[in-house]
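A quick aside before the break. I want you to see a complete sequence-to-structure record at least once, exactly as it would be stored in a machine-readable document. Don't worry about memorizing anything.
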Amino acid sequence: MKTFNIRFRSDEKLRDYIYENQIIDSSDILIQVFSHQKKHNEIQKITLLLNELLPSAAVIGTTTDGEIIEGRILTSNIVISITVFDYTSLKSTFLESQSDSYSAGVTLANEIIQKDTKALILFVSADDIDASEILNGIKSVKQDLVISGGLCGDGGKFDGGSVFNYTHISKNGIVAVSLNGEKLTASNRYTSEWEPVGRSFKITKSKKNRIFTVDKMSVYDLYEKYLGSEIATKLPLSGLQFPFVFKDTTNGSYIARSVRSNPGDGSLTFATKMDEQQSLHIAFGNAEKMFQNTQNIIKDIAQNESVETLFIYASGGRRRFLQNIAHAEIEQYKMLGTNCGYYGYGEFFANEEKSLFLNQSMTALALSESNKKIQKELYFKTHYKKLDMNLEITRALTNIAKVSSQELQDLNQKLELRVKEEVKKSRDKDSIMIHNSKLAQMGEMMSMIAHQWRQPLSAITAASTGLQIKIDLGKYDEKLFLYSLEKIEEYVYHLSNTIDDFAGFFKPSKKKEDTTLEKLTEKALFILSSSFVKHSIEVTTTYEKEVTLSTYSNEVVQVLINLLKNGENILLVREIKEPKIEINCFEKGQKKYIEIIDNAGGIDEAIIDKIFESYFTTKESADSTGLGLYMSKFIIEDSCKGKLEVENVSDGAKFTIILD
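That is the input. The structure line, written in C-alpha cells, reads:
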C-alpha cells in the first residue's frame, strides 16, 4: 500500500499530481478529503473532479477545524489523501442521520462490514446524534473492529459542517468506509490529558445529549459563574478549551466532553448522551502531558507496529489550546512515515478492548499490509522553555485551591464522625445534654461552612486556572494578572470572615441584649440559606413591623436554626414537590411571636404531644439523638422564659416561639 497526500491548489495541479505519481483508477483506492471549505458547490467541484480522475475509488470527506499533512498543521486549506491498497478491498456508504443513533450504527455496519473487515473509518455531521450510540451500534455487529474518525469541524464557527462522498453532501449525515483483507493490520491509539479542577458537579436535569441544569443551576450559568461572562458568551467555541470531564470507571482516567451548541435557553448540547446524576468537573489541559503522551504513542507504534500509513483524527479544542505547541506535536509523526488527517469536534475510538467517543483528544490510526517494522531511530525535540515564575505561581494557586477544598471536606467528615461518637457516649448523661446538642449542631454548621466556602474556593480555582491558561498560550497580561491576584485575596478574606461569623453563634449569651425579631430570624436564615437554595426550598418571611425585645440572642437563634433545619429535613424526606417554609414575625399584646410553618403534611396526631420529650425521635439514623426539640423547648421556656408550641395547620406543621 502507498499513500499520497496533497494540498489542493487547483484542478490542473491535482490532475498533474495524479498523472505524475501514476495513480491508476481502482476500486482499491481510498480517498479522504479534509476541507476548510464549507460551501457545498465548492466541495462538489472537487468531488466531481476526483470522480472524473478516479471514478472507482471510495471517497469520504469532511469539513474541518484544521488540516494535517505530513507533520504539518494547516488551516483554511483542502487536503486530499489518496491511499492505494495492494491486498485490501473497500466498501463505503453514506447514511442520513437517524433519530435512533444506535440503529444508525447497526444499519451502517450491516451495509459495509464483511467477515474480513479489519478497520472502519467514519465521519459524522449531525447536531442531534449520539456519537457513543453510533459506536455501540457498529460494535454490536462486529466486536473486534478497529474504528477511527470523528465529527466534522467548521472552522470554529459552529454554524454547521458537512460530510460527503461522490454522490452526497450533507450537514446531517454519516460517511464511512470499511477496510477488508487478511493481510491488513490496523491499530489505533488515543491521548487526552484534560484534568479536573475545583469541586465536582452533578447533572440534575438532562435529556439525551442536552444538559439543562447542573447542581440545579443552568449549565450556562455554571460556566458564567466559575469561568466568567466572557467565556460564557463565547460558548460553544470557548467550551473547546474549558470542557467538562468525567471519570472513566474502567481505568480511572478522565474523558472530556465539550459543548457542541448553545440553544440560548440556559441549556447546552453535547455530542453524546449525558445522564442525570453523573458527576462532572470543569477541566483544563495539561500541555506537558499532552506532548509527552504523543511521544509515548509514537514510541509505542514504532516498537510494536508495522506502519505504512498513519491517519490522525484530533480535536480542534486541543489544537486551539496548544497553539504553537500543536505544530511541534504533529511534526513528530513524520518519524513514523506518511501521515494525514484533520481536526474536528469529536473523535471515534474503538478496538477489541474499548469503545469510546472522545472530545479534546488526538487519535492515531496505523495501517499496513506488510510485516516490516520501522527501521528508524526516533529523535524527539525539546519543546518547552524553562517555566517562568508567573506560571509557577499560577500553578501553585491552583493547587492551593484544590488542596484546600479537599482538606475542608476531610475536616468536615472527621468532625461529623466525632460528633456521632460524642453523642453516643453521653446519651444517658442528662447533665451534659446541652453540650451534646451543640456538638450535633456544630456538625451541621461545619457542613454549612463547607457549603459557604465552595463558591469562593471555586472562584479562586477559576481565577488561577485562567491565569495559567493565558500564560500557557503566551498571552501574559500584567494588568489581568494583578487584577486576578487581587480578586483571589478578596475571596480568601471572605473565607476568613465566614468562619468568624459562624463561630459567633456558638458563644453562649451571658446577658440579655436588645434586638429585633427580624435580626434574630435573618441570622438563622444566613446560616441555612445555602442549604435551602441547594434543595430548592422556597422561604418567605413576613415582618409586621419592627418588633424589639431584650433576650439571649444566640440561644434564640440556635432554636430557630433547629426548627428550620427540622422543617427542611421533613420536606426532603417526604419529597415534597414544591417545598416551602413560611416565617411570620409579629407582636400581639405584650408578647412577641415567631411562627415557622412548613407544607410537609403535618405531624402524626398520635405523637404530636410527645415530640418535646427528651430522647423522643421518629428518625431511624444513628446520628439522631432526639435532643433537638427537647433542648429547643428547654432554651425557650427555661432560659428565655417564653413558650414553644406546635400544631398542625392545613398542609403542614406550625411551630410558634412566644417571647416577652
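Two observations worth writing down. Residues 2-191+288-368 form one domain. The chain has four domains: 2-191+288-368, 194-283, 389-504, 513-659. We'll return to this after the break.
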